[in-house]
Automatic annotation (TrEMBL):
UniProt keyword annotations, A-Z: Cell membrane, Membrane, Transmembrane, Transmembrane helix
Main location: membrane
Entry keyword annotation includes Metal-binding: no
SUPFAM superfamilies per the UniProt record, alphabetical: Transmembrane di-heme cytochromes (SSF81342)
Membrane topology: Multi-pass membrane protein
Domain Cytochrome b561 bacterial/Ni-hydrogenase: 20-195
Record protein name field: Cytochrome b/b6 domain-containing protein
Organism: Paracoccus broussonetiae
Transmembrane region(s): 26-44, 51-72, 110-131, 161-183
Coiled coil: none
Database matches in PANTHER family: BLL0597 PROTEIN, NI/FE-HYDROGENASE 1 B-TYPE CYTOCHROME SUBUNIT
Compartment(s): Cell membrane
């Protein structure tokens, strides 16, 4: 994990570069779709959670892909490219309320933390779902039989808490996108659609 990176300065030249590869972009939007669908089915869906389970299986596959891609994918997708130490996060935070685009070359140090938090919470969420046994004789996790009855029962509560954490992280993610769009005048959605982003030369690695 890189410890620090130079913060792009306002007078550094800006250029549009190819940043997010097609597989990473596809991962992002597919994950957003199935997490949203799975959450809605879990909260409002039919009593029999078959579709909810299948959403979870898709999320598991996507998380495994992201783990692998974080090591062998293109540079901007790799964890080593965007994970920073506390100093870099604090340095970025000092300028976060400046009313100017950051033009960061990839995930900024704060955004990197949100990526890891989301991946970790989703991993915990699907894990708890796999071993949950809500005692309704219908929606039993496929791996519930491999753990103790006490752990199966606790997993139900963990899964409910995880659903709330997922909702909180998604709302924070959307809030930050709106903050960047309307306060910092930086569009973070278009680069995840086109793969191209305006970045400053300084700060790349």
């Amino acid at each position: 994990m890189a410890g620090s990176a130079p913060r792009p300065a306002p007078d550094d030249p800006v250029q549009e570069v190819a940043l997010w590869d097609p597989l990473l972009r596809g991962f992002h939007w597919t994950l957003a779709l199935f997490v949203s669908l799975g959450w809605c089915l879990g909260q409002f869906g039919p009593a029999k959670m078959t579709l909810h389970f299948w959403c979870g299986y898709v999320v598991i596959g996507l998380l495994l892909f992201r783990l692998v891609w974080g090591f062998i994918g293109p540079a901007p997708a790799r964890f080593s490219h965007f994970l920073r130490g506390p100093g870099a996060v604090a340095g970025y935070m000092r300028g976060i309320f400046l009313r100017e685009p950051s033009h960061w070359p990839g995930h900024n140090p704060l955004g990197a933390l949100s990526v890891i938090a989301m991946l970790a919470v989703l991993a915990a969420q699907v894990s708890s779902g796999l071993i949950s046994d809500p005692d309704d004789y219908i929606n039993i996790g496929p791996l519930a039989g491999y753990v103790s009855p006490a752990l199966r029962a606790k997993a139900v509560g963990w899964h409910e808490v995880g659903a709330n954490l997922v909702l909180i992280l998604v709302l924070l993610h959307v809030a930050m996108i709106l903050f960047y769009r309307f306060w910092k005048r930086e569009d973070l959605v278009r680069p995840m659609l086109t793969g191209r982003k305006q970045v400053r030369d300084r700060g790349t690695d």
